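Design review, sub-item: ligand-bound model
Attendees: FS, YL, KQ
YL presented the inputs for the 4'-deoxy-4'-aminopyridoxal-5'-phosphate complex:
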Amino acid sequence: MANYYNENTILYLNGDYVKASEAKTDFFGQSLHYGYSVFEGIRSYKIDTGETGIFKAAAHFERLKASAVAMNMPYPFDIDALIEATYFVLEQNNLQDAYIRPLVYAPANMSFNQNTESYIMIAAWEMQPFLGDKLLKVMTSSFERPNPKGFKITAKAAGHYVNSILASQEAKAKGFDEALLNDMNGFVAEGPGANVFFEKDGTLFTPSPGNILPGITRATLLEICDELKIPVEEKLFTTEELKQADAAFYCGTAAEIIGWESLDGVTFKKCWNETVSKQIQDAYKRKTIGLPTVVEPGLLQD
Ligand code: PMP
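KQ shared the predicted structure:
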């Protein structure tokens, strides 16, 4: 279990910086009882200049706002001020390579009525890649992703993650590392907390938007493919097609990029280190620390 805080940890809470061990919330709100809150998962890195850089900070805080708006939660917060507060939290906690968790939550109100205010908390801690650094054994879940007709699935709303927890726990109980969820039409959607790509004959494929959380990492990888001139296509596909792939991987802020060993026991054909996906993994690492994705031949360190 990650170490989230100790007695010295500072977090940002509604305009103040407070000790995590002393921060308070109440037990009478929709967020805790009904999963009615929105959040973000962001990473900061020690960038090549030695400074701390929050990767895609504006995109994450804009999505936080979009998630709150989608959930009818008031959002009176200024994005630049929140980014500044986040840098301050990192500094106060002596963190450079960190995972950052802003959470917008509801005040005391146990009805289903809309609130007139929202609260915000921003915490940060050190976190290794969420799904580890070894190729994953993935299992097609018996759970489907939430139906977009029942949920605002492009919002990062806390309640949606009950589905993620069920799927991930099911996969682990069956001896796999992680689950893969289909959408309600039987097409591959995403993981419990990451988007999926597969590689076939040098081209990358990822599910089209519609039934997925369109991840910021996913968008970054589409940019990287463009920069590296790697063909990439968004389309709907099934697990049967995915099992014929040369390689596959999960991508997300917390997981970064992590290759798959197998899906439902079917091993992917190519050795990870020889895939285009591995080149993308390396390029992503470089981008997060402020280096260009394209490396001149001969300059590669590893
Ligand atoms: N899908 C789901 C369900 C997620 O929880 C996440 C993590 N936020 C992602 C995809 C990847 O999104 P991002 O790259 O923006 O972290």
